[in-house]
Design a protein that fits this description.
Blueprint lengths: L3 H11 L4 E5 L2 E5 L10 E3 L7 H13 L6 E5 L8 H7 L3 E12 L8 E4 L4 H9 L4 H13 L4 E8 L2 E11 L2 E9 L8 H15 L4 E7 L3 H9 L3 E10 L1
Parallel strand pairs: 9-10
Antiparallel strand pairs: 1-2, 2-3, 4-11, 5-10, 5-11, 6-7, 7-8, 8-9
Protein name: N-acetyltransferase
Pfam family, one: Rv0428c_C
Keywords: Acyltransferase, Transferase
Length: 242
Amino acid sequence: MIDPARLEPLADDAWPARERAALGGWRLNASSGHSMRINACWPLGAPDRDVDEAIAAAEAWLQARGLPPRFKLTDGVFAPADLDRRLAVRGYAPTKETLVMLGPTGGQGSDRVVVSTTPDDAFEAVFTATAGDPEDGRERLGTLRRIPAPARFARLDIDGAPAAIGASAISSGFAGIFGMRTAPDHRRKGLARLVLRALLTEAATLGADRAWLQVEADNAAAIALYADEGFEPAYRYRYWAR
């Protein structure tokens, strides 16, 4: 299994916020306020000041950008070790538990899936159609475009129209999987599985031998799909908010 302390910085870099800053080992991310990963403080290492002062500084930084204070605490990684207790005293509580899963790359892709280095109009059409909130969709599309190279974007078409998509970020021998979406009319047809396999096959050619992904802990259907493709639970994280 993977040490979360090794993977979490890669995960932060793979899904880059529009604006980033740091308080020592605490990473500050701000975007438009939708995707929690890019609108929160990641306290991965010791802060550069007294802990309570660091909490206040992180709160002020996020609030100055119109964002509610939010801290992403990963099991066994956040610093200091009593940060959860300190946040609880200030009125914070954990929410939105997320599971990180780890699996192999390689395998057999599908010639039905087109893989490119940028998200084209057809890719973005599926992403937009599956976004419940247009502003949320725009924020996530902007983040997809900021994924550092080498990034890959997979699309599967049916009858000439885009039906399913996914993306990956490659770094330090790992492939992060993002943006897995299927158009409403094409769900439950196994398309997500084909897109995932195409991304994992491509990742192996780019030097990644392991892949990781993040899925909400209560999304049983997605967890079952990923487990069927060889992914296993690695660790969990939660967002602490007031």
